[in-house]
Structure formats: structure tokens, C-alpha cells
Amino acid sequence: MTISAPEATTTKLENTGQLGYKKHTDGGWGLVPIQTRSERFASTNVEDFPAVTGREAVWKLTPIDRVADLIDGPLDGGVYDIDATLVEGVDVRWVDRTDTRIGSAGTPEERASANAWTQFEKALAITVSGEEAKTVRVRRSDLGSGARAAHVILEAKPFSTGLVILANTGSSLLTENVEILVGEGANLTVVTVQQWDDDAVHLASHFTTVGRDARVKHVVVTLGGSVVRVNPSTHLNAQGGEVEALGLYFADAGQHLEQQVYVDHDAPHTRSRVTYKGALQGAGARTVWVGDVLIRQSATGTDSYEQNRNLVLTDGTRADSIPNLEIETGDIAGAGHASATGRFDDEQLFYLQARGIPEEEARRLVVRGFLTEIVQQIGDPELEERLEIAIEEELNGTSLSTDGR
Amino acid sequence: MAVLEIRDLHVSVQTEQGSKPILRGVDLTIKKGETHAIMGPNGSGKSTLAYTIAGHPKYTVDSGSITLDGQDVLAMTVDERARAGLFLAMQYPVEIPGVTVTNFLRTAKTAIDGEAPPIRHWIKDVKSSMKNLRMDSTFAERNVNEGFSGGEKKRHEVLQMELLKPTFAVLDETDSGLDVDALKIVSEGVNRAKENTNLGVLLITHYTRILRYIKPDFVHVFVDGRIAEQGGPELADRLEDEGYDRFLVGEATA
After folding, report:
1. Which of A127, B22, B144, B202 has the CA that lies 20 to 30 A from A228?
2. Which has the closest alpha carbon to A192: A215, A218, A216?
3. Pair A77, A110 in one domain
């Protein structure tokens, strides 16, 4: 199946009254320039991309004025302070641009990502080997407020097992690329946690390739920062590969938290599950989730499901949720998508209150329950507990009962 | 002796066509330990009475009073009413994703009692109540009402009633949609609560069949927002034979 570009809505369509005659207008958004997700332009050189207008598919929901320095400006691509736990079977070091792994997982599809790629000087390489389960924590807490480029290589050797936690705190003005190479039969979990300061701006592209019969769990947790956009794409290019992409975000007043998730099924019997959940509270809290799943002709027997759920806690917030599914073969095991954005359900509140639970506590119980589903799947008790506390603090930030209804 | 008193209660609901009166002067007195059955045809206001007692925001009380041992129930919030000893077993309990039954029950019990229940004692209570209601132990780890069958939802309502130990319970069509086995299990639960805590029950039902298992002391027939007739258990038998036609015909010719 091929998908042709929808017609521009400026073209007058004759209305004959016949059902199904009119072409789909894509909600009147105007000209939609992208055809199929796999045909997006990609380059590692920033100069190959035209100036960003804000109308591009990848930028149209992002506040580009707040990230302008990262799209165009000069960036500091040098090394920065990291704090990494020493774990047997995990090697953490800085490598040169000549490292052969660089560029093997993906290529930038937008200008800020290419800008980082063009200007980074050293890449942080985290290499996991050995079949025993292990956890490594890599923390960045002192990136400063100057515009910065970064590049991270995260490699799981064949048949290795590991959990890698990338923890981000403090201030930052950062654009970066993270390449995740999951070797044959490996079992890797990557958790990136953004708990930046209120003024931080962070754009990240994650590129993952998954080897034969390998499994990767990729978790994006974003709680803090002014504008944070993490776009993880996963290329399932070997038979039997599997990705579980999970996300959790909590946007407060003025925060823009975005994720564009892409899963490219490009080999037989690959499996993907995408589950992102978010909460929004406070004036101007904004979240964006775009979920693209492409099932290519080569990907027979694919099993895929993506979903996004948003819980709106107060007035004045906006959640965009856009699931896209492209299927080029009829021979699949399953493919589905779901999206729901809802307010607190008054009936849920009534039910809990009717059991004696005060309103404020009832609301907390529901939000906590809603988000905990993702936290519980991380697999690291220490981080899970820390995130539960962080969510609790987010909930304490605003009085939930004064939502103006 | 605890008493729940409803006096000349008028209740309306907001619709697109404006305010629509549903209850038109209800008088009812329930003492602790008594079981009152409220019966009536669809749309007569039975469920409105249940939700008004619990304090659902959809319903507006235009006049009249509800008191619990002299305290003004209508002045209380929904959760205050529950803590004062009122319980509503709902006809359509809602799903609460991400909140497990265990967590929910403990949170509710803590809220009602004002302190966390002693943990060992509590776990024992939950387990034995679940066993009595033939609920599998895996039930406790499921999310509240999520994916529950109709029968499981009703059993879960009765489980809460048994554990939270209210003074008065309103059962809103708890019998509807239950097969005979589930009906018996649910009825046993209600009878246990009556026996153990001398619970006062307001049993709202469209059908007489649950009254075979839960014996009412009083039967009230609801028609068009008021009590049209009341009496003892024998009134239920008569309704079983005659149905509600006699009340509806009377109304049509009135």
C-alpha cells in the first residue's frame, strides 16, 4: 500500500453529494507535505536542512522560538561532567567522532538534531556486556546554561543484559543524539529521566536498532524543564526483534513536554508496544505525543500496538495526541492504536468520595494510579521509588481541587 | 438507636430542557437493624433517592430534609456522609484504572475510621470477607472494577459494605443483572452485615426476587417520585402477582 499526499484544502472539491466522494482533508490542516514516514529527509549535516519555519511536520507543534538557539546557533560540543556508577560489565568512556559505532543507528531528520551531530566533539559511549543483569546510572547535573551539543552511544553487546539509567537534572540548553545499538539476543532497558530545572531546554533524538531476537525497553520520563522534546525512533531491522517503548510525563504551568515516537518494523516477526501516559496541570501546560508506526512489506508477522493517554487536571492546558499507523503488508499478527485525553472523571471522584475518601485525596489516588502503571514497569526499585516521590511532589505543586469547574 | 429520616424530600435534576422534578415529597424513616425495600417501576425515582442520600452533585434538593440521628445530611459533602455512616452500593460502579482493590479498600477504611486499620487484623478481615463472597484472592490485585464482570462488580460493592461497616446502606438495584448463584452470594453478604453490625438497609429493586433472600421489614412502592403505598413483606408478594399496573393505571386515569 502506498500513501499519496493528501490534496491541499485550498483545492476546491466538487461536492456531488455522493458519500465518500470527497477526499480526506486531514482536518483542514492545509498542505501535508510528508508522504510516508520512511521517506523523510535525513542528514548529519546541519547545512543540508533549510531554515526552520515552524510548519514542518516535526516542528509544527513545538514552540520554535524557545528552542531557536539549538536549531541554528553555535554549540559547545566538548566533554561535560558526568557521574556514572562503576559496574562490572559496563564500560563508560568518551570516544572520538571516528568511533565506528557513530552513525550506525540512525541519521538526523531535523535541523536541531543535525546541528548537534555537526558540532559534537566527543561522544559518551556506554557499552554493556555480559549476560548477568546489571544496572548502571549515568547522571548529568551540571551542563550549564550555554547552548550545547551532545552525542551518546549506548551499545548492548550480543546476548548481554543491562539496565541503563540516564538521569538529567540541573540547568541545560542542550540538543543531542543518542544512538542505541542492541546486539543480537541482547536484553537492554534504557531509561532517560528528565528532571531539569524550570528554565532548561532539551531536544533529544534517540535512534535505536534492534538485533535479531533482541529486546529493548525504552522509557522516557519527563517531569522538569521548560521545553523538553525527546523523540525516540526504533528500527526493528532484524527478525524477532522487540521494543517496548514507555513514556511518562507531567507538565506544569508553562511547560512544553513533547515526544515523537517512531517504530519502524522492517523485519519479520518483530513486535512493538508503545505506551505513553501524561498528566497536565496549570495554565499553559502543554504536551505533545506523536506516535508513528510503520509496518513495511518486509515485516510480515508483525505485532504492534501503540497508545497514548492523557489526564487533564486543570483548565488552561493542552494535550496533542496524534497516533499514525502505516501498514504496507497484509500479513501481520496485529496492529492497533489508541489515544485518549480526558478530564478527571466526576463519576470516579464520586465513587471514591462515597467511600469516605476526601476529594483531594481521591484525585491524588487517581492520578497516582494513572501514572504508576508506567513507573512500575521500569524494573529498578530505587528509581521507581524516587519517581513515585517526584510525582507526589508534582501533585503537591498545585491544589487539584481548584480547577475552576 | 440510630435513625435515618427523610422528610418531604423534593429533588430535581438539570436537563437540557431545564430543571426536571423527580422526587415529589418523599417521607421515610429507617431505624438501625431494619430492612426497607423500595420497589417501583422504571423512572419512578428510586435511584434518584439513592443518589440524593449519597450526595451525587447531579441532583438538586429543592426542599425537605435528610437527617442521620438529627444531623443534617444534606449539609455534608459526599465523603462526610460516608464517614457519618452512610453507604451506597451502586448499580453501575465505575472503573478506577491504576488503583488496586487492596489499595482502594485500605484507603477507604482509613478515611472512614480516621486511622489506618491494624495491618494483620485488616488483611485477615479482607481475606475472610472475600472468601465469603467467593471472590478469588487475585481479585485484590486487580484495579478497581476494571474488567470486572457484572457479578464481580456487585460482589465488590458488598465486600466494601462488609468491610467499611456503615450504619445504613442503600443498595441500588444490587440484584439487577445477577444470575441466581450470584444473587444468593450477594444476599448472604447483606444478611451477614445485618447480623454482624445491625445494619439498616434501604434495598432498592425493580424485582421481587431478591426479597426471597433478604427479608424486608417494610415495603414501599414508589410511583412518580412519591411513596404510593407501603406495608409489610406481604406487599411484595402482592406486587409479584400483580406487577405495577394497578399504580400506573391509577395514575393515567387520575
Report:
1. A127
2. A218
3. yes
Collapsed DSSP state (helix, strand, coil) of residue A63: coil
Same domain, A90 and A59: yes
Each residue's pLDDT tens digit in chain A (405 positions)? 445 544 444 444 444 555 555 556 655 555 555 568 888 999 999 999 999 999 999 999 999 999 999 999 999 999 999 999 989 999 999 999 999 999 999 999 999 999 999 999 999 999 999 999 999 999 999 898 899 999 999 999 999 999 999 999 999 999 999 999 999 999 999 999 999 999 999 999 999 999 999 999 999 999 999 999 999 999 999 999 999 999 999 999 999 999 999 999 999 999 999 999 999 999 999 999 999 999 999 999 999 999 999 999 888 999 999 999 999 998 999 999 999 888 877 899 999 999 999 998 998 888 888 898 899 899 999 999 999 999 988 887 754 433 333
- Best mutation target among B96, B141, B148 (most A Cβ atoms within 10 Å) is B96
Flag whether A357 is in a domain. no
Q: Which chain A residues have a beta carbon less than 8 Å from that of B57?
A: 346, 350
Q: Give CA–CA dist B4/B201, Å, rounded.
A: 10
Report the residue from B78, B87, B98 with minimal CB separation from A369: B98
Question: Residue A3's domain spans which residues?
Answer: 1-14+21-31
- Both A67 and A172 in one domain: the answer is yes
Which chain B positions have a beta carbon within 8 Å of A369's beta carbon? 96-99, 103, 143
Distance from CA of A307 to the nearest CA of B (A): 15
Q: Residues A155, A245: one domain?
A: yes
Question: Rounded to whole angstroms, what are the CA distances from B138 to B107, B130, B131?
Answer: 19, 10, 12
Closest residue, chain B, to A347 (C-alpha): B94
> Does A177 lie in the same domain as A79?
yes
A366–B94 CB contact, under 8 Å: no
Q: Are residues A253 and A129 in the same domain?
A: yes
Query: Do A266 and A134 share a structural domain?
Result: yes
Q: Which residues contact A157 (CB under 8 A, 6 or more apart)?
A: A127, A128, A129, A130, A183, A186
Where does A214-253 show beta strands of DSSP type E?
215-224, 227-236, 242-251
For chain A, what is the domain count? 2
What is the helix (H) or strand (E) element at residue B50, kind and residue range? helix B46-54
CB pairs under 8 A between A and B: 79
The answer to whether residue A364 sits within a structural domain is no
How far apart (Å, rounded) are the C-alpha atoms in residues B252 and B94? 37
For residue A395, is it within any domain?
Answer: no
Tell me which DSSP letter residue B190 carries: H
A405 and chain B: CB distance < 8 Å anywhere? no
CB A238 within 8 A of CB A212: yes
Phi, psi angles (nearest 5°) of residue A101: -75, -25
Q: Are residues A1 and A133 in the same domain?
A: no
CATH class of residue range B3-253: alpha beta
User: Best of A275, A311, A349, A350 to disrupt the B interface by mutation (most B CBs within 10 Å)?
Assistant: A350
Q: Which residues of B touch A372 (CB under 8 A)?
A: 98
Interface of A with B in 355-374 (CB under 8 A): 355-359, 361-362, 365-366, 368-373
Longest alpha-carbon distance in chain A: 71
